[in-house]
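I'll show a sample.
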Amino acid sequence: MLHGNVTAVPTGVGPSMVSYSKRSIYLKPNIYPSLSSLDSLEHGSSRRKLQSQFRISTRKLNRPHALVVRSDYPQNVDFPRYLPKKERKPFPVPIVELRRAARERLKKSKGQPRKPVQPPRTGLLVKSLIPIAYDVLNARTTLISNLKKLMKVVPVQACGWCSEIHVGPIGHPFKSCKGKNATIRKGLHEWTSANLEDIILQIEAYHLFDRLGKRITHEDRFSIPRIPAVVELCIQAGVEIPEFPTKRRRKPIIRISKSEFIDADESELPDPVPETSERLIVTEIHNSEIVAPSDEEGIILLAEETLMAWEQMRKGAKKLMRVYSVRVCGYCPEVHVGPTGHKAQNCGERKHQQRNGQHAWQAAVLDDLIPPRYVWHVPVVNGLPLQRELRNFYGKAPAVVEMCIQAGVAVPDKYKSTMRLDIGIPSTVREAEMVV
């Protein structure tokens, strides 16, 4: 052990060195135990300085590493912004990006042979998406049947003046009503029992016998049936429903111009053979056959099946929308399944006079086809009701997901961001005022 003024200075890579009185002794790692022979230095009067330079590999050093927690879903996300009717819906891809991508494609295609057109633009079906279309249709039917049973167990409230709903035994006290005489009621809701149509909005669209045919005119708007848009998307993707026939081609069309084409001659082809193993289509349960589960375990199993059907329907519809185009009006909720929108002049939203009542068509997103209907999340169902002063601490979730959670299903990870489960809710209003 060294006595006196000794300073240890860690430096770069190099051999260990002890220096005193202008004299240096190089130490090797295998002679570290011989440091006891330096006891004679304790009687010296000169200033000692110990410099140690260690030749140690950086791989053996226990350097601290930053803990990185990766997650596909953010921790907290704001609720979907309410779009006023004066504003147009945002485009899924900005127009500037679309124009830039078009210029890039035009630049790369110069001097190159023209690529063949892929289905469904040729009039043929995409065979790999036919099973997905059947799964989406069956998941929608299963979801509707299970929600009819689940509504017998989980109460759902609906406002009698506006379209807002709430999942729970008691409606929320927030002043957010925008219906008739809302100013007289100071924005408070008048809660009643909700129906299935309040939970799942039935967005309807025109059924097309030929998805590549002529556009629907204003005079033909009443002669063409309207069906749920999800069902129409599944029919165009390959689902066969006898009540809604559609034209199926076995040869690609012959394109004359951008808007004109002729069908190929299919007389040489053999007659189509019906499939031996037809895919089954689930039928919807009638209202008289609805029986709610009586035990808690049956309720949880029903809620899990309902949530699975909800996710399967949305996931499959998103895959179909990537290939089969769906259009939506930029100002109203009108949806059209097909390459181009119809010409019916039935839009009554902002600037409809300038468009002569026609819709401002743009590419649709999944929420336009299947609206999620966000509702307030109740942290404790059988506890205290939601308080008006603590509104900023509560989260939201789709109505179907909130019903399944209150029935006993674990919260899915993708919905935790808007539900704000990691935020502590104050017990009193005074405690909430102290939050910084």
User: Anything to note?
Assistant: Residues 1-61 have pLDDT under 50 and may be disordered. The chain is about 20% helix and 10% strand. Residues 95-106+118-263+281-419 form one domain.
